[in-house]
């Protein structure tokens, strides 16, 4: 039997050009952690602060709600309202991994009004793990990349800091066309090549992780 090829590190699960990544089960074992996690979160935090300065007309809590889907339930709701990819594999993936809640029976809003998620950040070391078990298949069925974080069971604390909460197991970045989305796009393009994105990696100073 020929030796099995080893897959390179990739910290995101993202659909292939045909809609799904057949190797997503292997990719689920890769994470942003250590210094790369520090750099990732600090860079996103700076873009959040920049976006907030440019748009401070709303109260902070409402502004964050417009930029992010926060928590497993909120992320699940937004993903379910998005138009699914019409591929046969979609049904089998959701059947295999399960779903937190059934899809809505009727869509009150038109597709033009549905909020789109650019990516979902997941604290992969949080417990219980069944809380996020359904997200990989659901996100892939909507062509939404996943970014997995790991920090010695503290990733949910780090992720919560981004959205001014104590903890957050999952955070979906809404597609708003702002500086946050520009950075996430660079992260995703960089991750597909096995790094965080050279344009901002080389220009960002790594700061100590928050205590």
Quick recap of the structure?
This protein has 211 residues and is of the alpha+beta class.
Give me the oligomer status. single chain
One letter per element, helices H and strands E, the order comes to: EHHHEHHEHEHEHH
Helix coverage percent: 40-55%
The major sheet is characterized as: 5 strands, mixed
Number of alpha- plus pi-helical segments: 9
Total beta strand runs: 5
Label the structural class.
alpha+beta
Strand content: 5-15%
Separation, N- and C-terminal Cα atoms: 50 Å
> Whole-number radius of gyration?
17 Å
Low-pLDDT segments: 4-8, 16-29, 105-109, 194-211
Give the overall pLDDT as a whole number: 77
Overall shape: globular
Strand order of the largest sheet: 1-4-3-5-2
Task: Please give a structural write-up.
The protein is α+β, with helices and mostly antiparallel strands and 211 residues long. It has helices spanning 24-27, 34-54, 60-67, 72-81, 88-97, 135-141, 155-162, 179-191, 198-201, and strands spanning 12-13, 68-70, 117-123, 146-149, 170-174. It has a five-stranded mixed beta sheet with strand order 1-4-3-5-2. Helix 6 (135-141) links the parallel strand 3 (117-123) and strand 4 (146-149). 30% of the residues are buried.
């Amino acid at each position: 039997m020929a030796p099995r090829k080893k897959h390179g590190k990739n910290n995101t699960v993202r659909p292939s050009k045909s809609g799904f990544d057949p190797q997503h089960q292997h990719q689920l074992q890769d994470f942003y952690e250590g210094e790369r996690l520090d750099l990732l979160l600090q860079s996103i935090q700076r873009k959040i602060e920049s976006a907030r300065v440019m748009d401070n007309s709303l109260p902070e809590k409402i502004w964050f709600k417009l930029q992010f889907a926060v928590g497993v339930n909120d992320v699940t709701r937004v993903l379910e309202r998005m138009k699914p990819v019409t591929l046969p594999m979609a049904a089998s993936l959701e059947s295999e991994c399960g779903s937190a809640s059934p899809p809505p029976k009727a869509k009150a809003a038109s597709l033009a009004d549905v909020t789109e998620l650019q990516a979902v950040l997941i604290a992969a070391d949080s417990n219980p793990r069944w809380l996020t078990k359904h997200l990989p298949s659901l996100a892939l069925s909507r062509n939404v990349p996943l970014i997995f974080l790991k920090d010695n069971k503290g990733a949910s604390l780090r992720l919560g800091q981004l959205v001014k909460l104590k903890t957050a197991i999952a955070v979906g970045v809404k597609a708003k066309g702002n500086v946050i989305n520009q950075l996430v796009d660079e992260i995703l393009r960089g991750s597909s090549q096995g790094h965080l994105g050279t344009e901002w990696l080389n220009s960002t100073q790594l700061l100590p992780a928050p205590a």
